[in-house]
Amino acid sequence: MKVLVRVAITSCLLFIQALGQNTPKVQPKDPSKDPLKVAPKSYKLEFENDWVRVMRVRYGAREKIAEHYHTERPAAYVYLNDAGPVVFKHKDLPYGDIQRAAVKAGTFRVYRGVKEVHAVENPGDTATEFLRVEFKTEPLNQNSLRGKYHREPVGPAENFRKVQFENEQIRITRLVIASNKTMDQSTTATEPALLVALTPSKLQKGKTRINLEIGKTRWLGTGQQEELANTSDAPVELLRFEFKTKPFHDPTDRTEAHEHKHSSDNNQE
């Protein structure tokens, strides 16, 4: 009987050991490769909460950035100025150097989550500046995350609102608020939103003035009532990101948490 018990225990231990060997190991964090630490002048945390992480990125003319990693979350890239090609030099990946084509201000691109370990080189004489908007919510239908989306012609006295990208996880809407006009930005009970300014934006909510420079963000929580008036003499252009799925913790995320939250009204004068 004792022999049978020992055999059973040994079998259980061997089975547990085999499971441990077959379980994928989570890659440990390497803080030394965090882009915010490798190149703090090029990568700056613009905003982060449980739903989204926004990094402002700037590659100066003829600048080279040392090797670093990014999270493996799906993301949107929002280009803030006209700029030339940039070369991304990947390490330990099936693809090597990839050249990003020239970009136009106001364009955004969406892409699924991928492993990214690379160095960067801007070979041109013009700096390039953009936002990396990482979606921290449950990823659904990542294969649909592709394509570039551009500015569209809008009359100077017209409001404009158009969904340019949508899948099961995210909805991205391009907004233009004409001078001295208003636009409702209220959120639903389940879908918060992030606004990104594509132009200098002088806005007003009731008696509260809100100034957003290009690339600055404004967070709208779930069920938030928000009507914004454009108080400037020129149209205001924004991107609105709406989050359709809940926050999701990815155990393979190699980035340390960087607390950088702001309330919806912290961009006041």
Description:
- This protein is 9% helix and 39% strand.
- It contains 2 helices and 19 strands.
- The protein has helices at 2-22, 35-38; strands at 43-48, 52-59, 64-70, 75-79, 86-90, 97-100, 108-111, 116-121, 128-135, 148-149, 160-166, 170-177, 182-184, 193-197, 201-205, 208-212, 217-220, 227-230, 236-243.
- Strand 11 (160-166) and strand 12 (170-177) form a beta hairpin.
List keywords for this structure.
2 domains; six-stranded antiparallel beta sheet; mainly beta; 2 helices; five-stranded antiparallel beta sheet; Jelly Rolls; 269 residues
Fold topology:
Elements: H1 2-22, H2 35-38, E1 43-48, E2 52-59, E3 64-70, E4 75-79, E5 86-90, E6 97-100, E7 108-111, E8 116-121, E9 128-135, E10 148-149, E11 160-166, E12 170-177, E13 182-184, E14 193-197, E15 201-205, E16 208-212, E17 217-220, E18 227-230, E19 236-243
Antiparallel strand pairs: 1-2, 2-9, 3-8, 4-7, 4-9, 5-6, 5-8, 7-10, 11-12, 12-19, 13-18, 14-17, 14-19, 15-16, 15-18
